[in-house]
Amino acid sequence: MPFLDDPTFRVSLLETMMLIRAHEERLAARATPTTLGTCTAVGQEAAAVGVVRALEARDRILTNHRSAGHLLARGADPGRLMAEVMGRADGYCKGKSGSLHVSASELGVVLTSTIVGGELSLAPGVALAQTMGQQEPGGITAAFFGDGAACEGIFHESVNLSVTWRLPVLYVCENNQWQAFVRRDETMPVEHVAQWVQGHGIPAQTVDGNDVEAVHRAAVNAVATIRATGRPYFLELTTYRQRGHFEPDDQGYVNADELAAWKQRDPIALTTQRLLADGVLAAGELSHLRQRVDAVIDAALAFAENSPWPDARELTTDVYA
User: Fold this and answer.
1) Where residue 31 sits, what CATH number does that domain have?
2) 236 lies in some domain
């Protein structure tokens, strides 16, 4: 894997994961039941970074309510993203979307859907537009969703349509073991979602979603396969949501031992240990990375807090139905 042979690239994966974690934790610390809420994906950073960094500018992304990692890995401005979550006018959608409906067309992020599985219903249409020349030639559509969305009927409808019409869709299931407040094994008779797609005749691979380099290898292979065949591919990334369903959330429904065990496999800690052991990163450089990330997040928060509230007249703009 050429990029993974490059020490600078490997460190950049770590720094992006650190940025995502810091961004989400800073917002979570500010969350209250009445003023600010957000869905985080703390613990899932390797899944987002590993896949998004395998995509090209001509590719399109559809994501779900845990979208900050995908957006930041794609190059979203942390200040504008924070401003959006805080409902400010300088946000990506003028403060109208919060954390649950962010779109950023300039980044190729078509939408964030808070409807569970909503992005799956739209992915074949976006991919069809790509094949009809309405997007940049050779682009693919990456649809991110969780194991909860995989339990929706639209999941099978979407996969079936993409296979039948031979559409360039990369399905990325971030299996984080939780479906809102319900444990995955309470709704699924099998451990892996990948088992469900075999009957659709789609190539499928299950990967350790907490290992960013393993995710990136699998994503690069999946993307190359889609571009060569024009057909869909399915990736299941096994990971764990370390924080609650929605901030603030006390996670009283989570088994403490299970959570502690998964935190031992924290994706940022695993990558840090690997880079230190490989001599790619020194302790001093790690400290510098942390300082740089903190400075970026400090500046992002200041930008968001200084951004104005939307004008009341904005209430009726950008409304299409």
Assistant:
1) 3.40.50.970
2) yes
> Could you tell me if residue 321 is inside a domain?
no
Q: How far apart are CA 33 and CA 246, in angstroms?
A: 10
Return the H-helix or E-strand segment holding 18. Answer: helix 7-30
pLDDT in tens, 135-170: 677 899 999 999 888 888 999 999 999 999 999 999
* CA–CA distance, 158 with 164 (Å, rounded to integer): 10
On whether residue 313 sits in a domain, the answer given is no
- Write out the residue range of the structural domain in which residue 41 sits: 3-307
| CA distance linking residue 49 with residue 18, whole number of Å | 10
* pLDDT band, residue 316 (cuts 50/70/90): confident
Give me the number of domains the chain comprises: 1
Asked if residues 303 and 90 have their Cβ atoms less than 8 Å apart, the reply is yes
- What would the DSSP string read from start to end of 126-170? HHHHHHTTSSSTT--EEEEEEHHHHTSHHHHHHHHHHHHTT--EE
Rg over CA atoms, the chain: 19
Helix then strand then coil, % of the chain, to nearest 5: 50, 15, 35
